[in-house]
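Justification of computing resources. Each target in the renewal requires a structure prediction run like the one illustrated here; the chain below, 162 residues long, is used simply to show the kind of job we budget for.
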Amino acid sequence: MNYKIVQRDFWHDEKIMSMTTEERYLYLYLLTNPYSSNIGIYKITKEQIKEHTGYEIDQVCNVINSLINKYKVIAYNEDTKEIAIEKWGKYNLIKGGKVMEESMKKQLSLVVDKSLVTYVALNIRKKWALDLYTQYCDKKLTYYDIKELQFRRSNETDSYKN
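Resulting structure tokens:
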């Protein structure tokens, strides 16, 4: 049986709490749908999203644009049809192990838009997973480069809140 785990903290995230019901539902769908992967990046068309959610295609486009531009929780490459979930590592990366790591390596190697790998990597806190992602980033980033970017980004977020 295939299933996805969503951390309870998901519902306490400030961005999630500020979303409309429509946005929250689509975001939760993007985290858990049958096309989703072990790496937070996968191919999906807006038509597929429409079929599963029951939203009209205009609704799908509007909510995706909102998740990209207003909340900045996903990235979507229109050309490759790849989607990346910004905080995938925070809500889905629970444990590793040899089988999980091999599966992730294979999936990371298949990502066409490598900038999406960097996008997801910026929110991964577990060193073993971050080490995997840095091998597939669009730029040759080290573990320490990403930690520095994460640090700067968290300071920007903190100053934004004040």
